[in-house]
Amino acid sequence: MDERFKIRWPVLFLGILAMFLASLSLTGLWSGKRDVSHVEAAEEQLLDQPFIRVIGTGKVTAVPDEAVFTIGVRTRASSADQAVKENARKMQAVIEALKKQGIAPADIQTQGYEIQQEFDYPKEGNPRPNGYAAVNRLKVVVRQADRVGAVIDAATRAGANEAGGVLFRMSGEKEKVVAQQALEKALSQAGAKAQLLAERAGGKLGKVLAVDEEPGQKPPVVYREMAKYEMAQQPASDAATPVPAGELEYETQIRVVYQLR
């Protein structure tokens, strides 16, 4: 082959690589810069200027207004078919009882369904079959947390014989209000800290240059799991099962950069 037309592969490869990197640089896809927060970006621009960076924390305590719990029906019979039919009858009655308590259909969701063969375990010999069990569990949302005890009682009277833990939480609307209150407290604390630091440094606090908010923290209050079957065996009473909601603490943090004059 003529030497003029021989392909010099190393040279060609390096040329293509250079063009590729140049195109990335032009489009901003290969810039070598990491993502930074607003606070960090402001600090980079103020490296030759005095500034103050503070962290403010805001905490708000509130009573939860919603509750989530699980309720179940367990039935036993000599055959799987009988256990399933009896379970379906009782669970339908439980669902109707929940609706009468004002629980919307959208707030009633199947949590799990099981059919199990049961066994006796004698001290001697092999396990012996002893019928079948069908278990159907629901997750229920109560939009009024102070009514969760009455709702559980109604489901129990209708045939429910299992209950799980109760989780209290804030509704979306209430959470927005509480989050706003926590943010205001965080901003106030940050401003007070910055003002104190500026005075101690012999300067004056300038304008806010950047603010970053950290995600809010709202740990749920969990009511301990109730003993299975226990509720169905309790005598009827006019008083609802007590399920105190307690309180939730919502916390948020902000980072603020102030100009120091």
From TrEMBL:
It holds the Pfam family SIMPL. The keyword Membrane applies. GO terms for biological process: DNA damage response. Keywords: Membrane, Transmembrane, Transmembrane helix. It comes from the Bacteria. Gene3D superfamilies: Protein of unknown function (DUF541), domain 1, Protein of unknown function (DUF541), domain 2. The chain crosses the membrane at residues 12-30. The keyword tRNA processing does not apply. This is SIMPL domain-containing protein. It comes from Bacillus thermozeamaize.
